[in-house]
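Design a sequence for this backbone.
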C-alpha cells in the first residue's frame, strides 16, 4: 500500500460552469481513474502516473473531454469549465469551440411584399430594415430547440426575402422554393430537439410555421435571424 501511495499521482482541481459557479456532482471519468466533485465543485483522485483523457459530465451540462497529465505526487489541475444546457424556451445555436457556447436566436420579423406579373400574383416574405441576426461561425450548425413550436429554416436572397408564394386566380397560393432540411435531428425530450445543418455562409431565418404557412403576428410574421460567417477574431 505504501508503495502505491509513493508512486501514485494525486490530482486535485475544480469544475465550474461558464459563469464561474462551482458544479457539484460533476463526474470525471478516465480508464482506471474517476472522481465526483463535492458541493464546492472540488475533486481529488489518485491515479497511476500517466496521461489521461477525462470525460467530464453533469446532467445539466454538455460533456467535455479534457487531457490531463498525471505526474507522481500531488498536482493541481487547471479548472475545468462546463457549459450548461439551455433550459429557457427558444431556439439556440451551439458553437463548438474549445469551450462551447450557446447563443439564443433573437426575434425578428418577416414582412409581406405583394407584386403582380401578368395574371400571376406574388407575395414575398422578406426581412425589414431592423432585422436582428444572431451570429454563428462557418461550419456545421447545431440548433437546439427548447419550444414545442413548429418552424422552418429559409435562406435569404439578395433582397432579403425568405419565401415566395404565387397565385394565378388570387385564391389558391402555392409556395415557390422549399425550406432547408436538417441533415439529422435528435430528440432530447418532449418538445426539445437538436437539429444539425450544413449551411453556406449567408443570412437565414427560422420562421414559425403552422398548417403549411408562416405564423402571422399583427402585420408581420414571426421569425428568428441567423448569420453564418467566419468567426470574428478574439
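Sequence:
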Amino acid at each position: 500500500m505504501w508503495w502505491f501511495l509513493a508512486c501514485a499521482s494525486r490530482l486535485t482541481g475544480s469544475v465550474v460552469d461558464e459563469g464561474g459557479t462551482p458544479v457539484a456532482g460533476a463526474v470525471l471519468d478516465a480508464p482506471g481513474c474517476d472522481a465526483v466533485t463535492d458541493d464546492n465543485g472540488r475533486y481529488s483522485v489518485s491515479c497511476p502516473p500517466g496521461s489521461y483523457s477525462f470525460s467530464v459530465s453533469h446532467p445539466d451540462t454538455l460533456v467535455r473531454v479534457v487531457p490531463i497529465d498525471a505526474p507522481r505526487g500531488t498536482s493541481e489541475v487547471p479548472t475545468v469549465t462546463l457549459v450548461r444546457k439551455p433550459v429557457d424556451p427558444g431556439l439556440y445555436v451551439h458553437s463548438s469551440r474549445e469551450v462551447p457556447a450557446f447563443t439564443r436566436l433573437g426575434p425578428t420579423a418577416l414582412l409581406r411584399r405583394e407584386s403582380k406579373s401578368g395574371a400571376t400574383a406574388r407575395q414575398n416574405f422578406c426581412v425589414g430594415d431592423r432585422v436582428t441576426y444572431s451570429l454563428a461561425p462557418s461550419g456545421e450548425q447545431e440548433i437546439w430547440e427548447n419550444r414545442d413550436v413548429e418552424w422552418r429554416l429559409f435562406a435569404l436572397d439578395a433582397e432579403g426575402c425568405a419565401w415566395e408564394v404565387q397565385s394565378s386566380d388570387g385564391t389558391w397560393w402555392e409556395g415557390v422554393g422549399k425550406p432547408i432540411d436538417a441533415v439529422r435531428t435528435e430528440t432530447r425530450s418532449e418538445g426539445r430537439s437538436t437539429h444539425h445543418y450544413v449551411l453556406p455562409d449567408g443570412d437565414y431565418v427560422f420562421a414559425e410555421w403552422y398548417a403549411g404557412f408562416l405564423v402571422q403576428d399583427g402585420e408581420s410574421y414571426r421569425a428568428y435571424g441567423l448569420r453564418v460567417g467566419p468567426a470574428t477574431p478574439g
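Residues 55 and 165 are 50 Å apart (CA to CA).
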